[in-house]
Every structure is written in structure tokens, then in C-alpha cells.
Amino acid sequence: EPAASAGIAAAIQNASDEELISSLAALSPDGAAKLRTALAPPTSSAVANPIEAMKMTQQRITFSKQVEDALVQGAHSLADLHNDINSLRSKTCREVRGNVPGEERTVMNGFQVLLQEQVHTVKALIQAGGDASTVWKQEIKLMGTAGALEVLCGDTRIPLASDENAANPLMLVVTDLTRTCRRAYFQAVAEKKILAFQGPAGTGKTETIKDTGRLTGREAPIMKATSLSSATDFQNCCKAAKDALTPVIIDEANRIAADQLMDIAKRAQEVGVFLCLTFNPGHAGRNEIPSEILANAVIVDMTVPPFTPIFCAMLACEGFQFCDDLSGRMDRLMCGARDGLSKQCHYDFGFRASKAICRAAGINARAEGFTASEDTTLASEKTLLAKTLLTRYWPRLTTADKAVFEALVKEHFEEDSDLPVGFKGGDDKWATAAVMLAHTLKARHGASVVGVDVDDVDKCLNVLGDEAKANNVELVRMPGSMAESSISELFAVDGKLAKELRKEKSWVIVVCGSMSKEDSVVKFEKLNTLLDDNKQLLHEDGQSTGFADSEQKIIFIMKDAVDLTPATVSRLGIVLIE
User: Fold this and answer.
1) Burial of 365 (0-12, 13-18, 19+ CB in 10 A)
2) pTM metric for this prediction
3) Residue-wise pLDDT tens digits, 489-498
């Protein structure tokens, strides 16, 4: 009844996390689902349902108890649990296809990643046979009762805190290395040692510590080594820690002089801080971490994580129920492309490109009728992902590589895929490029047309103008070029880029011109936050300018991409003019 629902909603808003967990745990899964639905905010609301935000914690508690019970009952019970979690995962895949508000979608995506971890955990327990209990002991578990919840791993128990900053539903995809990192984290806590993650850039050193801290309800303060000029800076960072079990991270620790790092480690021990260090030991020009620190640390060697489980989570969050099968196919295709295609500076088969592919596949899936109410088949999902991969990579490939990539798609997805109309044009390469750019901009808000000589800029702009009209947007051009504009002229609050970004329903054209490599790197680096998911152009005074609306895009016209860094290439959809 409306009056009762209003009363319950008010009680929930005033309840503590532990009261909510206890109340939900007492309900059946169906009852909890009905309560979440009844209390769901209007679809226009940007605020996450408080019950929805608790769903991941509830699922962790439920799962931990289910596994404990299944281990007592035997392998058959584990197989049933595996099927149950898989069914819930499949149901959640369907649900994300619907018109879900942004905040709730974030929660649902995090829930999907959690379910993937739990499915794979139960599968590993089944495969372990008689050693299942030993394997389970080394997994993260959330157990206890309201007011006394604990996070367990091995023989170590950490009380669950209720740091509201740690309530972020996003979590990292769990791999075998993640499990190693979690065990090292809990070992360091138990033995009161420093936690040290070492490895090259891009291996997730800092994020993995943050992610594990959040599992215990604690948000890790992070201090960049370059920002540590005195012991006072470190003390201020420690003050942000919730308690002695909150990880305090020093990023790029080998930038700090050995004597200063020794002083920090000593102070951390004196005040009882859980000190965590991340560093790349192979980076030229960095300092050696003192042997005294390493002797008192639990050390993990970090490597680039496997792509398949990450692809799996990305596809699941876009509504693909057969993500386990498709992620393997996609990974093998990407590996084949990296090894089999020519080496081009504008090619990208990394995480950011993969995320764009999965997002585009989700857009295509919803356009082709994938709904929240109906299951899909492996064949239909396979066809759709294969077509998306071919369509998204085709515009940036050289003529010679197009045939190779097409063959790779057929090999790994076992079928021929059709390209959109206009992708295989006749003699008019400019019109073909314009069509491919329009398709690229459906999944990317930043793109580049590469291969445009200075004499062909006007010709390129003419066809892009026609394509913009066909898409009901205006083509606007930033005055001059990036090459002839200074940093302040480009990036000031009232600079050239900010002025164009204030024009609604537009494709903003930026002609790059002839820049030195150094100039190109500096200027495009300042565009990173505009071209990634932040979609904000940062100004020197701390202000920012975002896109005027969802239809606005930014397009860079350049002769070649030889001076673009991999970080910039990964942020752009690229159309190649040969």
C-alpha cells in the first residue's frame, strides 16, 4: 500500500548499513527482489535506490553461506549452486538491456562482475574435488551477523567497516592474480607488514589495493610520490584513513629517496598505519627500494591481467548472456589481429578499444531487439558481436589488412559478417570515409580522420558537412589549427576549444596541422579527460568545459598519426584515408 511503502522507504533512509543487511538477509531472494522493485525511485531519478546499493553486500553474505552449506552437502550441492548463480547472472544480463537509469546501471554492472566472480569460484571448487575446502579457505568471504560482520581470507579476519566512500559498486574483474593479491593483502594485515605491489605500468597495482580495501568497507587514501615533499604530507594522508586497517597507498614509491622512504616506513609503523607501496622496478631513473623495507613487506609481482575475463564482464554488462563463450572468441581474434596485421601506429587492440567495442555491441544489440524480457541464443549474440568487431575496426585498417581481419572474424566466429551500406564504396574515398566516421561516432565521442593532406582539408570538410546534415547536426570548425595555436589559446576557459564545445548539436572539427612530436604529445595529453569517459576539458584555473549535449562530437583532421601516443590512439575512433 502507498502509505506502508512510504513508511518503509523512510525507515530505510534512516537505517544503518548493518540494519539493512540484517533485514534483507531475513527475506527470501524473491521477497528481497520485490522490496527492491517496490522501493525503486522514478526512472528519472539519478539517485541509486538504497536497497539496490546494498544488493552486492547481501549477495556476498548469501553466497558465503551457500558455499559453506554446499561444502558440507557435497559436490552435487556445489553443482546446483553453480547453476543457481549462473541463472541469476543470466537474468541480470537481460535486465541491463532495459532503460535503466545511470546510477542503477552502475550498481547492476558491479553486481554482474560479482556474479561472474562467484560463478568462477564455484566452478573452481567443483574442479578441486576433495580439496574444495582448502581452496575455499583462501577465497574472500563475508560472514557473521548484523553488527559483527567480518571479511575473511585464510585465517585472517577483518571487521567490515562502513566507510560510505567505499560503497562504490564498481569492482575490478577477478582473475587468478587478483586472488593472489587478496591473499597477500590479508597476510600483510595479519603479520603487520608493508604490502608492496611491483610491476610495469598498466598492471593494476594501485587499483587492486583500492579494490581489496573496499571489500573490507575502507577507502584507501593515495599519495603520489611526487606529492610527498615532507613527513607532514604523509601524516596528512594518514589522517584520511578510517582506522589502522585502512590501506594507505604511496604510488610510484621508488621515486622517493631511500632515506625519506625509510623515514615514512618508520613513522607508519610507529602510528600503526597499514602502509602499501606500488612501484615499477624496471623504470629507468628510479630509486631502489631499501632492502630493509622489502624484508618487512609482503611482495606481489604484478603482470598484465588476462583479457578474456575482462571481456566477459564487459559483454555481460552490455546484456550478452553467452559472454563466457564470446569473450574467448573475442580475445583470440584480438591476439590474432595483433600478431597477423601490419604494425600501424593508429592500430589499437587494448582495453580501451575493447571497451568501446563492447559498448558498441550493446548499442547494436538494443537496436536489433535484444530485450530484458527474452533470452537470446548463442548464434544471435555471436553474429552481432562479429559484425560489431568488423564494423568498428574496418575504418582504421589498411587495404591489405582488411582482408586479413575479415578472415580472422570468420575463423573465430565461424561466419561471414556483412558491413554497413557505404563501407565498401566506389571511387569516392571521401564519401566512404564520411559514412564510416558517422558509424564510428555512434560509439565514440572523439574521432580522427587520418591521411588528409593539407590540400585535401576542404574536400574532407565538405563531405563531413553533408554527413553531419544527414545526422541532423551542424559541422563547426575550430579557427586555425592546433599547430598554430598556443596552449593558452587552445585550453583557456574562453579558448578556442571551449568556445566550440558550447555549441549544441554539433560535430566540432579540429584541424591538427603540422606539429612537432613534442607539441603533439603535450597538446593531446591535455585532451585526455575530454576524450575519455570524463568528457571534460580541464582548464588551468581548475574549471572544466564538457560537451554541450549527447549529440556533440569532436573530430580531429590530420595527415598521419605517427606522433600520437598509444594513450591518445586508444581514446579515438579512427578513419583512415589511403
Assistant:
1) buried
2) 0.82
3) 999 999 999 9
